[in-house]
Amino acid sequence: MQSTPEADSTAAVPDATAVSQQQQEQQQRDAEVEEYTEVMEAVEVVVPRQAPMQVLQTYSSAASTFLTTERVGQGISVGVIALLLTTLGIAIMNAYNKANTPRAKRAQLVDRNLQLVEGLNEYLPSKRSGLTQQKAQSLRNRAGCTPVEAFRKYLWYMLRERKFDQAAVDDMAHLKAMLSLTDAETAEAIRERAQRVYDKYGTLMLNTEGMTLEGVQRKSTCKNLLRKLLYLTESATLLPQRDAAAGSSEAEAAVVDLRKIFGATEQDLSDLRIVNLALEEVDLESAMDLPAAPDAAAAAESSPPASLPPSPPGESRPPSA
User: Are 151 and 104 in contact, with CB atoms under 8 Å apart?
Assistant: First the structure.
């Protein structure tokens, strides 16, 4: 059976319609894909900038709600706070205990003494006039000591480490004036220093026969320190001489009785008295049982010797303030 032209024409119409529909559907899908792509591009630009912050805020809000409202969360919060406070308290207590041990306190005292001596050495003796009352008070305050203590500490440094000449005596007299010390307070400082020298070196002994080398050195050091202290107590520029027999309390307070402190006689003091510094030099370093050093002299300042245990035989102890 043969097809007619009319039948072929009728069959071609449905094929064209199907092709057209397919094209429309394809165009529609392309449009949807393009629209989806544009949306995704917009999301890719905005979401990465906002999502992390939003997530963080969400988690933070949820955690805060859990820790403040839920019973379990409240227990965790209290436990964490208690742990932090306990840890902080233990750290503070350990630091306090460490800073208040006898060794730590002595180290702090040594540092303050060094600071005081070094500060005064900037002016004495070369720039003596530059040491005013304000500067002396500032140095004393930084060292945390009273005027009498400041005088006594520098006196110990001067006795051990400086050449004992007229300049040294004049420096002590100037320091007394800048610290506004009275005669009684100056005598108190010298008396305390003499007592500590006695506590360390013992009674004055001019005859050292039969003693060990260490004993001879200790007594020689004691003798030289006593000679210097005796000269200072009899120096009119430092302690104006008064008659203690007059009976006034002021006169008695300004007198330093070295005979009583060292167990010496008047003849002993007469033999040791320095008559003229210009004609006689006292070399202390060669007689010291400890090596001389500026830092060591200042470090020697510490609590009163009565609080220290006795030294083992044959062993020397650093001198105290």
Answer: no
Report the pLDDT averaged over residues 7-28: 66
- pLDDT of res. 123: 94
Query: Residue 139 region, left (φ>0) first, then alpha (ψ -120 to 50), else beta?
Result: alpha
Which residue type does 319 have? P
**pLDDT of 103:** 81
State both tokens at 8. Answer: 């072929």
Q: What is the pTM of this model?
A: 0.59
CA–CA distance, 167 with 169 (Å, rounded to integer): 5
Any residues with CB less than 8 A from the CB of 225 and at least 6 apart, and which?
159, 197, 201, 284
Residue with tokens 């007394």, as numbered in its chain: 176
The pLDDT tens digits for 196-234 are 999 999 888 888 888 889 888 888 999 999 999 999 999
Can you tell me the distance from the alpha carbon of 259 to that of 265, in angstroms, rounded to the nearest whole number? 6
Type of residue at 199: D
